[in-house]
Amino acid sequence: MKKIILLFVAIVSIANLVFGQEKTKPCPWAVAVLNPDMSGEVNNRERIFIRGYLENAFIQMRDKGYIVVNRNKIDAAIAEQKFTHEDFSNDAKRMGVFMGADLICITNIGKEDGTVFLDAKLMDVETGILLVSILPRDLEANDLPGGCKKAAQDLINELGECNNDGIEMVFVEGGAFMMGCTSEQSDCEGNEKPAREVTVKSFNIAKYEVTQALWEQIMGTNPSVFKGANLPIEKVSWDDVQVFLGKLNEATKKHYRLPTEAEWEYAARGGKKSEGNKYSGSNDLGNVGWFAENSAKKTHPVGTKSPNELGIHDMSGNVYEWCSDMYIDYNARVIRGGAWYIRKECCCISHRSHSGPHERHDSLGFRLVTDVSK
After folding, report:
1. pTM of the model
2. For a pLDDT cut of 90, what percent of the chain falls above it?
3. Is residue 164 part of a domain?
4. 259/122 same-domain check
């Protein structure tokens, strides 16, 4: 049976989102939602409602740094510039430049026997490359507002929050997972057993370990042994990190924190996108991490190895990472992920270690987490 497709376009103006390099345009990011084409079973009333539902969905996400461009201004610009819906990939850059946008969101809505189908993709106007997509899903015809809201939320979660502080965060959808010594995690130690089911709520986690550049910006010092702006900060204790978080949160008016141990492992495994790897993103540690066999006895710039299934880098190797949890058997805090100096067995996802909250090591850093706005 033929599926009838409607096409609408949302143009997104991006601020600090990183597509290979950091952009400097300030928040908020403006979303321009175009009127969808109409065909088949979709009528003009639904066409108008769908546009309104999508606009309202983006408006409700102001706290993530998004605003909606006035539709009259958009329609006038399209008419004046004679933009068409035939070939968005070729027209993308011209549309983006004219409207001050960096991304185009191409969304398909079809209707068949009363059921509405939706999928969406985000295109980089500079390259024409599709960067983010959500899989096709059915929408309840009697709840199009809810379906459109969920689609917009999924797109923004994949895209990330507008973030003026330059810290790139990755959305991690919550869920249940087996934590600890699962079947692919060989050579487990006693503190990784038994494997048990754990449930975490959705959260945002930093794509990279905190760098020396960010630490210096907030703290005015750099205690690291291995110096370099894009190297991970190290030689910072758990107590030092608490001072850093206080100053960072005061400066950004946000609530950054350390991950819980469960959040850390869930993100390292790839969350709901997990492929069951031994290390974070691969069964070959050399592809994703710096460790004793390839590090040349030093740390390396963050993000230079391949990411895991969620797009997060360096969760196996480079530097150990502080977690918020107390290590039960000692007066210590949990550290996870392995480091540049250590054998590969200690870079497995399930590997656990600990350090005193006052201790500083040249192999120990951290990454940031925020809660998901409700």
Report:
1. 0.65
2. 45
3. no
4. no
